[in-house]
Target: Glycoside hydrolase family 38 N-terminal domain-containing protein
Amino acid sequence: MAMSTILLTVLLGLFLGVKSEYIAYNTSAKIVPGKINVHLVPHSHDDVGWLKTVDQYYVGANNSIRGACVQNVLDSLIAALLEDENRKFIYVETAFFQRWWRQQSPKVKGKVKDLVNSGQLEFINGGMCMHDEATPHYIDMIDQTTLGHLFIKDEFGQTPRVGWQIDPFGHSAVQAYLLGAEIQLQGLCTLTINNTILKTEGNCTEKHQNPPSNVDSDLSVIPCPAVQLSI
Model:
């Protein structure tokens, strides 16, 4: 059925004389007053061990459980960014990036550093993984975040500006305070949902809770009821 739909679309395009041309998108960051401003944020979401082992996720093994190959993601990502300077991407899981980085030639590393310096590639959150906020001890959360930040600082001379906790099952004051305001992040993106939406929907799940009330006012906690597109 899907193939028939695609074939029909192609045939209609040929008969109707539809032209396909390259479009240079305006990727500059600005708000257009009076309009709904939609921000598409290409980002990584590679679990550092979940349904498969860390090694299986990285090399793409055991795909009968979960189709994922982080190594291929990074290879294709860097190639795509180098092809078009309008493209931007944010990478989250330092554990995978560090492993990939150690396998690259000096030439490739130089190109990646150029991408980081130009702002095409940005590291956010910066921890070795996107840790859960409920079960880990706060010392472990701090340690794994510190380890990732040190790698980014040593290799690229940069520090992540934004926290990115879009997948934990519930949110804690520890994340927003110790690993947000206290390390001077400019913002923290979560998948929390505003009270108004919760009341409208009439459904409050454990994963979608309110941001903590005792967060430092210098930190912007950004609830992101995001629509994630799997491509």
